Amino acid sequence: MAGAVQDRSPPLVAHVIHSLRVGGMENGLVNLINRTPAGALRHVVICLEGYSDFATRLDPAVEVYALHKHPGLDAGLYGRLWRLLRTLRPDLVHTRNLAAIEAQLPAALAGVRRRVHGEHGWDMADLGGASRRYRMLRRALRPLVHHFIPLSLDLEDYLGGAIGVPPERMTRICNGVDVGRFRPVGDGGALRGRAGFPPAAPVIGWVGRMEGEKDPLALVRAFIRVAGDEEEGETKARLVMLGDGSLRGQAREELEAAGLAHRAWLPGERADVAEILPDLDLFVLPSLAEGISNTVLEAMACGVPVVATRVGGNPELIVDGETGVLVPPGDPRALGEALAEALADPDRRAAMGRASRARAEERYSIEAMVAAYLGVYRRLLGQGAGPLAGGPIPEGGAR
């Protein structure tokens, strides 16, 4: 008599996140899923809250679930998650960031045999890991997590020191960038045409969520400091801010109050970022907290020098004075001074842009990122070199 038929379907990974909307962490998740080799894994995405049109960037075969978390305390949320996991029966659950770490408990109770948690950056209520409450939460859930994936050195140090995660249960994996899609091909015309800027105007740019931890108002205020009056026949700097959020209206108001609204373009979220970035003269990241910024990597791959705050993983990505400039967080004056110096020296900007592109190609390929994640999954699932093979897990993660 024939033996029982075994399920030969690839392992199922359930990615649990707060919501699937435009953002760096979410972009990294989409890249990982879409670039997983065919037949290696199956993926589902579970959003504790919901998702936007951003979800259409995923492979159409990937199902996305929304649990519609209610504002504040939602007592039934984790019961809904438990029931969904019991139905899906994933082989591995991967939660991301503070907002989803509590999902480790219902995953364990649902019998998911392997559980991973990723730390991608700091929550506004926990900048630098300063919150005692959230330290206690992470410590309490630590025994349920089989493996932690911090994106940056500071997150790795925090998990090891403050949370007590042993080194053998951590793999640092930096984000990766598609250096084929993001490349220095712009001549400046595309962006300036869209924004209505003069062809010769130097352009400072930013991409992200207009929320507090990203501190977009610091860039607005720095730009106001350095913009200067434009005399007849002069062409001075312009500002581009791509993204949406609760601070977008205030950013517009401050630019209008300074008489600079005509020299700024704030169109909201855009699908053509890869076409716009190469046309920038400077990319700026004024965040109060960061993990490994996808937008910084994309700007680097486009050959654009970066001025960023010295927080999170930014010092890992940017070689200060060589590929860009690092400034203190929350200091529009220092940021403005760095912008003024860079705008005054086109040759230095060009040299930093070339160095940025070379660094992105050499150290932050998207292929290395995907291989590192698949290596962690393979090891936890007890698989040898098969369809998940991507080389050994790099020491300290994909670099």
Count of structural domains: 2
Q: With helices defined by DSSP (H or I, 4 residues minimum), what is the helix count?
A: 14
- The amount of beta strand, in percent, is 5-15%
CATH architectural name of the largest domain = 3-Layer(aba) Sandwich
Written as H for each helix and E for each strand, in order along the chain, the element string is EHEEHEHEHEHHEHEHEHEHEHEHHH
Topology:
Layout: E1 12-17, H1 24-34, E2 42-47, E3 63-66, H2 77-88, E4 92-96, H3 104-109, E5 114-119, H4 132-141, E6 147-150, H5 153-161, H6 189-195, E7 203-207, H7 216-227, E8 238-242, H8 248-257, E9 264-268, H9 273-276, E10 282-285, H10 294-301, E11 306-309, H11 314-317, E12 324-327, H12 332-343, H13 346-363, H14 366-380
Parallel strand pairs: 1-2, 1-4, 2-3, 4-5, 5-6, 7-8, 7-10, 8-9, 10-11, 11-12
What would your notes on this structure say?
With about 400 residues, this protein is α/β, with parallel strands linked by helices. It has two domains: about 10-175 and about 365-380, Rossmann fold; about 190-365, Glycogen Phosphorylase B (Rossmann fold). About 35% of the residues lie in helices and about 15% in strands. It is built from 14 helices and twelve strands. The strands form two sheets. A six-stranded parallel beta sheet has the order 3-2-1-4-5-6. It has a six-stranded parallel beta sheet with strand order 9-8-7-10-11-12, with helices on both faces. Strand 5 (about 115-120), helix 4 (about 130-140) and strand 6 form a beta-alpha-beta unit. Helix 7 (about 215-225) runs parallel beside helix 8, helix 7 (about 215-225) crosses helix 12 and helix 10 crosses helix 13 (about 345-365). The longest helix is centred in the C-terminal third of the chain and has 18 residues, at about 345-365. The N and C termini lie far apart (about 50 Å). GO terms for molecular function: glycosyltransferase activity. It comes from Thiohalorhabdus denitrificans. InterPro entries: Glyco_trans_4-like_N (IPR028098), Sugar_tfrase_PEP-CTERM_Stp2 (IPR017522). Keywords: Transferase.
